[in-house]
Amino acid sequence: MNLRIISGKFGGRTIQAPDGSGLTHPMSERVRGSLFNIINSRLNDADVLDAFAGSGSLGLESLSRGAKSATFVERDRIASKILLENIDKLKVGSSAISVQIGVSTWVEQNQDKQFNFIFVDPPYNDMQFSVVKKLGLLLKSDGLMILSYPRKTVIPDFENMVKTDDRNYGTANLAFYKKE
């Protein structure tokens, strides 16, 4: 499956994505486009974390639009291989870190890290809200965490975070959080 980088220095280039039949579900171009229209003005020189990264489309789109660095965390072996190929294809290895490990374990080992943006796109059949809560601790004071979740899912309140926006895109929703 191919995905297109929407805008920025890699705009129009394609990357590979897992087929979506397993644990991954690539975010549609429409939803990604809307997301990046909302945050684009804040991306320049940002440090981003792409948690449950899959193909890495969110972090790679961020790098394309001026982010300084992207950290990709993906546990699945096949998705991690595709992600590394995408990083290599776009030649962004100097500003990208890809780690094949579960997000919860990675957070526990990296509690000193801080990010301007945290993209959280867990498998829709296992939203892992306890991990989402931990990810919020890695936000910079002016940072933003964006959670992708299926439309009919009720998301809990997360301690020390405030939901600032919630958008519906058919079967997918995006919730935006900042530190309280």
Cα separation of the termini: 39 Å
For the record, what CATH class applies?
Alpha Beta
Q: So, CATH architecture?
A: 3-Layer(aba) Sandwich
Structural class: alpha/beta
Could you explain the architecture of this structure?
With 180 residues, the chain is α/β, with parallel strands linked by helices. It has a single domain, classed as Vaccinia Virus protein VP39 (Rossmann fold, 3-Layer(aba) Sandwich), CATH 3.40.50.150. Helix content is 27%, strand content 31%. It has 5 helices and 9 strands, in the order ββαβαβαβαβαβββ. It has helices spanning 29-39, 57-64, 77-90, 103-109, 129-136, and strands at 2-4, 14-16, 47-51, 69-73, 96-99, 115-120, 139-150, 161-169, 172-179. The strands form 2 sheets. It has a 7-stranded mixed β-sheet, with helices on both faces. A two-stranded antiparallel ribbon has the order 1-2. Strand 8 and strand 9 (172-179) form a beta hairpin. The radius of gyration is 15 Å and the shape is globular.
Summarize the structure.
The chain is of the alpha/beta class and 180 residues long.
Give a topology summary:
Blueprint: E1 2-4, E2 14-16, H1 29-39, E3 47-51, H2 57-64, E4 69-73, H3 77-90, E5 96-99, H4 103-109, E6 115-120, H5 129-136, E7 139-150, E8 161-169, E9 172-179
Parallel strand pairs: 3-4, 3-6, 4-5, 6-7
Antiparallel strand pairs: 1-2, 7-9, 8-9
List keywords for this structure.
Rossmann fold; 5 helices; alpha/beta; globular
